[in-house]
Design a protein that fits this description.
The structure is a homodimer of 207-residue chains. The first copy, chain A, is an all-alpha fold and 207 residues long. Helix content of chain A is 74%, strand content 0%. Chain A folds into 2 domains: 51 residues, Arc Repressor Mutant, subunit A; 140 residues, Tetracycline Repressor, domain 2 (Orthogonal Bundle), CATH 1.10.357.
């Protein structure tokens, strides 16, 4: 008599195993073999869900997008209240910080993200999900700036498309530095840099 | 009778092979096997110089640092003249642009750099050379800002250490976006974003 397996439950258990490994041992340890060992399953049953490490990373990357989306959604009401009180920069900071690896959970996510990007640079076929995620971050940057502009917290002479590129690049650079050297590039440094960046936009565009 | 091999010459030929492959087929193709094939040598003779792909990447990374250093040195006199003429931002732009992948040669370098960073995230033992390179870029950011401050082109209220972090993150983020999607993040967009960034520093620090 074949054993019935609840697929959703098993997939969720494998997901937990992937993230435990990434957090504890880093992304390279999250191989199909490593995940099977962590979850106490055979290679074959893991392969049923994730045939290759690329599949694992793809799954983990979708989780990053999903988790960030949920965090952003969860804070929406609080941010609206802050913005309604005329504190536009605070509201924008609260939104933008959700995309930065400023705590252990988001640092793990950023490690997965970086591993995925590295895979993508090697396998251009995997670019779709990375682009999807990029588009998400870019939209957050654009919407933050558009919101600030509406409140009069971005000077009317600023080119929003260009400022979106600049803010987006700054966020990706800060993420990268938090990942590479979180001692030097501390959460405090990152928050202050971001606040100054948004503050500068209240002045007229130079040139 | 053993054949005499000029080691420096062979190493230089292998270096050329590595870079040709990276430019044509991407970093993953620059394996020991790929380099041997490209250079028309046996695996064994390539292994004499580069035992593993990590060694190849290490070598290629040192080349990136070396080439960037030479470009920066080569433009020093021109930049001094521009700065002496009171065009501090132009001089800083000329320096900072040397670190950005704004042409085919530097795009290849950035691909090697990204591949190396990916390796490094997997093998923390390889972090030393990446840190060395980071330190170089950080120093360029700091020196550019210090130069601008001396010319009065960075407002006295600005925190140079913090602005160094912010400019450095911006440069790494722009590099990343040029690498991932050079159509959307064009060289023009990058140059304009950088110029606006430097222009903003002429105003007082917000807050």
């Amino acid at each position: 008599m074949p054993i019935r397996v609840d697929h959703a439950e098993r997939r969720s258990a494998l997901a937990d195993a992937v993230w435990r490994i990434v957090r504890r041992d880093g992304v390279p340890a999250a191989s199909v073999r490593g995940v099977a060992r962590e979850a106490g399953l055979s290679m074959g049953s893991v392969r049923h869900f994730f045939a290759t490490q690329d599949d694992l990373l793809d799954f983990a990357m979708r989780e990053v997008i999903d988790r960030a989306g949920k965090r952003i959604e969860a804070g929406a009401a609080a941010r609206s209240a802050i913005a309604a009180a005329g504190r536009g920069v605070d509201a924008a900071m609260a939104l933008l910080e959700q995309s930065l690896p400023l705590d252990e959970e988001r640092l793990t996510e950023a490690r997965v993200w970086a591993a995925f990007t590295a895979q993508m640079l090697s396998h251009p076929g995997m670019a779709a999900i990375r682009r999807e995620a990029d588009e998400g971050l870019r939209t957050i940057c654009h919407d933050s700036l558009a919101g600030l502009a509406e409140l009069g917290d971005v000077h009317a002479s600023r080119d929003l498309a260009l400022e979106t590129e600049r803010l987006w690049a700054l966020l990706d650079g800060l993420t990268f530095h938090l990942l590479l050297d979180p001692v030097r590039t501390s959460a405090d440094v990152v928050r202050t840099a971001l606040r100054i960046h948004l503050g500068d936009l209240q002045g007229p565009a130079p040139g």
